[in-house]
Design brief:
With 126 residues, this protein is α+β, with helices and mostly antiparallel strands. The protein is built from five helices and three strands; from the N terminus they run αβββαααα. It has one domain: Sufe protein. Chain: A (Alpha-Beta Complex), CATH 3.90.1010. It has a three-stranded antiparallel beta sheet. A hairpin with a 2-residue loop joins strand 2 and strand 3. The structure holds FE2/S2 (inorganic) cluster. FE2/S2 (inorganic) cluster binds next to helix 2 and helix 5.
Length: 126
């Protein structure tokens, strides 16, 4: 049913928690199932250096959260916005058709975190 990677990220999720004083925070919920995901990011010199998540949701949502927080590290905020739900599903080795909607949470929560970061207008002077 789930790929080996999905099981791994579900059983051993990476980047669980919340960054204190995060540069950007995004929260996304799915009204249909009631699941909620929060992603927080830390940005330095236009690079996302850390990302963490808190998710109340199914196994697929946990795996998506874990994978997307891994994928986003080292990317610029602009490149982070290009990560699609399809990219995350592909990295996870696929999701069962009835679980594809769970991947929406990850991409949307990340987009909101980047938008929040941009709204705050953090500026670095080297
Ligand atoms: Fe709601 Fe998976 S069932 S996110």
């Amino acid at each position: 049913m789930y790929s080996e990677k999905v099981n791994d990220h579900f059983m051993n999720p990476r980047n669980v928690g919340e960054i204190l004083g995060a540069d950007g925070i995004g929260i996304e919920g799915n009204l249909a199932c009631g699941d909620v995901m929060q992603i927080s990011i830390q940005v330095e010199n236009d690079k996302i250096v850390d990302a963490k998540f808190k998710t109340f949701g199914c196994g697929a949502a946990i795996a998506v959260s874990s994978m997307i927080t891994e994928m986003v590290k080292g990317k610029t905020p602009a490149d982070a916005l290009k990560i699609s739900k399809e990219d995350v599903v592909q990295e996870l080795g696929g999701l069962p058709p009835q679980k594809m909607h769970c991947s929406n949470l990850g991409a949307n929560a990340l987009r909101k975190a980047v938008e929040d970061y941009r709204k705050k207008g953090k500026v670095y002077i080297a």
